[in-house]
Amino acid sequence: MKKQKSLSRMLAAVTLTTALISPNVASAAAPAPVLHDDNPNGNFGDWYTGAVPPNSSNKPVILFVQGLHSNYKTWYTTDGFYDAAYNAGYRTAFVQLKDADGTGGNMWTNGAKLAEVIKKVAKHYGVSKINIIAHSKGGIDTQTALVHYGAYPYVNVVHQLSTPNKGSELADLAYSNWAGWLADILGKKDDAVYSLQTSYMANFRSQTDHRSENGYTTTYMSAGTGDDGMFSATWFAHAVLPGEDDGAVSVDSAFGLPYGIRSFTKNISHGQMAKASQTWNLVEPKLKKATAALREQPNQVRKSKEKASATEESSFILRGGEVEDKVSETFFLESGIDKLNLDTMTSSKDTKVTLISPSGKEYEADLSKTNRAEDEPPIFSDAVHHFIEVDEPEAGEWTLEVEGEDDAFFMVAQIEGGEQAKVKANKKVFQQGDKAKISVELGNSEIDASMLQKANVTRSLNGKKASVLDQVKFSIKGDELTGNFAVPTKPGVYNLSFDLTGINEDGEPFTRSVNYNFAVTDEDGELEK
Q: Which of 229, 346, 449, 480 counts the most CB atoms within 10 A of its CB?
């Protein structure tokens, strides 16, 4: 639909001044930004310029870049960065990437267009260089624009807000054997999510981090470690993200540039990272400091010595698939667990979810407990979350029953205080013809050889259901489970998904799930885009 040429009819002004929230941010609502309608048939490629505040000529221009499945309103909202920047005397601009039209674009699609907009913004304001503040995937799109599409001479500073520089395990799960059904129904498997898989990003890093173009721009990195409260989607995402995280991106991924400068870490969620009351006072000093001397010569780019391998710990159980009438899934829990937190995602609130204990006690999901935050992780943000919490669950075989029509489900069971599986793989990115190896250890517990199952290899594809391409057979060597296999011959991104059954010192079986995401490139190091 054709957009209106002016936002004056759409947004009269931002509602409440963000100064009521924090003294560090804006004291008045800024005038509506002006649309530069370069795309008459959509939003992709359009850009906006904010109102010019008084006495702004001695401060840099800031271009704001939104994240996954978002648009410029990330910044033009109550408690937004636009108000804060305007009141601090900064000239501003906002870009609309492909995600603003509904379907997300990968870094190649967005980066090429962003490079054009960067040059337009610099020309509009008559400056040689601008600064960029980017939320989430916007940081990756920005780096692509600078390094691969020649925009680096026009940018002095980039400040990333929780950018998944190494990808996000949530994107891996969207293409896994368990969650693929639900992701298809929700329409969240697109080029943007595909490109955020951890192995895809490992390959992107190998194509990007050695480039000298990185040295012309100072890049600051920041990370969150919080969530949006108990029973929120960001709270449950902690179960599958490694180490500390903000409910969408791990700290390790956010700080994943070897030449980036660590700016700050704060105990807030992924969405809150782009709220002015939370982070503007932490970002602005970096803009002032870096503007003191605009560089014409590149910084020395520090090459990463880190090998793109995979070492993770699994304390979760995953289940998922199609729902027609009633579906039952089982898994084992050991004794001594402090708490079982179960999040079963569906597309319909009418789908019924019940958890049955080994003794027959039934726990029905309580939708009223759902804490739905304004800014949830974008990949599964449209899902209905059926939460079940069990303190000190009994040992034995548990059953999950999902009843509904024309639906799909994805279950994440978070185990607090139980056994952990340590997963190791030799690397994340392979070339055609390579051999791969993955191993799993269970600490002091044994692996139940009688319940060993082959692992399913599925290929990540948009618009198609995940189908099993191959199965990997495991063997037990000592206390370690090992799988050796030849990687698929077709370039692309793949998932190796399987369950592991361990036997603890009390002879009790327990289940843990593993999803290993890896990529296969051609002889030129390229993936299918």
A: 346
Task: Give me the pLDDT at residue 412, please.
Answer: 93
The bridge status of strand 429-431 relative to strand 509-521 is parallel
What pLDDT, on the 0 to 100 scale, is given for residue 187? 79
Q: Which tokens is 476 given? A: 């037990």
Residue at token pair 């648009």 = 71
**399 is written with which tokens?**
């059953």
Residues 318, 315: Cα–Cα separation, whole Å: 10
Residue among 463, 514, 457, 515 nearest 490 (CA): 457
- Asked if residue 179 lies in contact with residue 495, where contact means CB atoms within 8 angstroms, the answer is no
SS3 content of the chain, % helix, strand, coil (to 5): 20, 35, 45
- For 361-400, the pLDDT digits (tens) are 999 997 766 655 555 556 777 788 899 999 999 999 999 9
Report the candidate in 401, 405, 406 with the shortest Cα–Cα distance to residue 329. Answer: 401
Beta strands in 179-225 (DSSP E): 218-224
d(CA 491, CA 62): 39
DSSP string over 416-431: ESS--EEEEES-SEEE
Round to whole Å and give the CA distance between 506 and 335. 9
